[in-house]
């Protein structure tokens, strides 16, 4: 049995669950509040706090975990990423009061008090910048600290920037970029997965990777005039060019099938229509294996 640690709530919970479900690993829990659930096959999920996942994976309480790269880095545990999952994208940034005098890292005076939930990363960042600062550890709502006078500067996560903005703060430095990753114990831990366990993990990585790869692509089918196939090849470059299929009673038309980037599908459809394509059909892809 392979045990996967998954965030039980918060920002990463829904995306982690839907990624697993799309890969065929649906949570089979007796109740919404169950903390252990079968994922089918040889997988079991434990639902724990995102912050605790690096510790649990490093200790061997779970074989793998889905959590933020920021939390993995902060933990300092010897973990290894097996897959960047792409969601939970955010940045750990240094921010100061918008109406204050500090507008860059260089302008931060020694002795400045910095509030953060990420003391290790913050310490390392300012040490590397040659600054002696005083850390003020907090466990959340960091953005309020400068207004309470308990810190001058904060180090916190941001994605849209709206929390900083509404709290009158300005970003002045970048500490780390983060997304959710599938992590396992690294070689230095002495707990790295080997043998059968490693083989099962590789299958999991392939399954999740194929779901992620499929999300950005669409499968497109269209009937096009045989005489315009050269243009079709320009419009639908595809992985190995479009598949061209004869259509029974299709007359001068042939069917073309291709995998196309979802982001360009609007333009692709218009280009196909312009060369006389008919019966255009676009579908989602569940998995894409290279
Ligand atoms: N604004 C954001 N945009 C995108 N991802 C984020 C954002 N904030 C946090 N994350 C990611 O989600 C992870 C977990 O954050 P979340 O807020 O869910 O946890 P938490 O603050 O510990 O939970 P809770 O607030 O429920 O106690 C972070 O470590 C980070 O990787
Ligand atoms: O740049 P933005 O899009 O505004 O996002 C940034 C906010 O998101 C996170 O908090 P979250 O909403 O997870 O609340 P929390 O403090 O309860 O964790 C983070 O700690 C910031 O406060
Ligand atoms: Mg949060």
From TrEMBL:
GO terms for biological process: L-histidine biosynthetic process. It catalyses: 1-(5-phospho-beta-D-ribosyl)-ATP + diphosphate = 5-phospho-alpha-D-ribose 1-diphosphate + ATP. Pathway: Amino-acid biosynthesis; L-histidine biosynthesis; L-histidine from 5-phospho-alpha-D-ribose 1-diphosphate: step 1/9. Pfam families: HisG, HisG_C. Keywords: Amino-acid biosynthesis, ATP-binding, Cytoplasm, Glycosyltransferase, Histidine biosynthesis, Magnesium, Metal-binding, Nucleotide-binding, Transferase. It is an enzyme of class 2 (transferase). It comes from the Bacteria. GO terms for cellular component: cytoplasm. Its cofactor is Mg(2+). Its EC number is 2.4.2.17. GO terms for molecular function: ATP binding; ATP phosphoribosyltransferase activity; magnesium ion binding. It is found in: Cytoplasm. Belongs to the ATP phosphoribosyltransferase family. Long subfamily. Catalyzes the condensation of ATP and 5-phosphoribose 1-diphosphate to form N'-(5'-phosphoribosyl)-ATP (PR-ATP). Has a crucial role in the pathway because the rate of histidine biosynthesis seems to be controlled primarily by regulation of HisG enzymatic activity. This is ATP phosphoribosyltransferase. It comes from Pseudogemmatithrix spongiicola.
């Amino acid at each position: 049995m392979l045990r996967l640690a998954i965030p039980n709530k918060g920002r990463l919970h829904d995306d982690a669950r839907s990624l697993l479900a799309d890969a065929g690993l649906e949570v089979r829990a007796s109740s919404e509040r169950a903390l252990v659930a079968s994922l089918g096959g040889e997988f079991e999920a434990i639902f724990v706090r995102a912050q605790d996942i690096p510790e649990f994976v490093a200790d061997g309480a779970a074989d793998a975990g889905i959590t933020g790269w920021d939390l993995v880095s902060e933990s300092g545990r010897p973990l290894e990423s097996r897959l960047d999952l792409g969601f939970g994208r955010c940045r750990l940034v240094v921010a100061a009061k918008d109406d204050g005098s500090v507008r860059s890292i260089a302008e931060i005076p020694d002795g400045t008090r910095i509030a953060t939930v990420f003391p290790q990363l913050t310490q390392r960042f300012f040490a590397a910048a040659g600054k002696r600062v005083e850390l003020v550890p907090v466990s959340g709502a960091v953005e309020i600290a400068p207004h309470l006078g308990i810190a001058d500067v904060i180090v916190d996560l941001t994605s849209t920037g709206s929390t900083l903005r509404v709290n009158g703060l300005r970003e002045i430095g970048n500490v780390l970029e983060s997304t959710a990753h599938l992590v396992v114990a690294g070689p230095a831990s002495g707990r790295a997965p080997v043998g059968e366990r490693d083989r099962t993990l590789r299958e999991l990585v392939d399954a999740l990777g194929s779901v992620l790869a499929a999300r950005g692509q669409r499968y497109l089918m269209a009937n096009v005039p045989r005489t315009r196939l050269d243009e079709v090849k320009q419009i639908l470059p595809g992985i190995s060019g479009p598949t061209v299929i004869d259509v029974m009673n299709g007359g001068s038309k042939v069917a073309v099938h291709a995998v196309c980037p979802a982001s360009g599908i609007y333009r692709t459809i218009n280009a196909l229509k312009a060369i006389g394509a008919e019966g255009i059909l676009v579908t989602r892809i569940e998995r894409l294996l290279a």
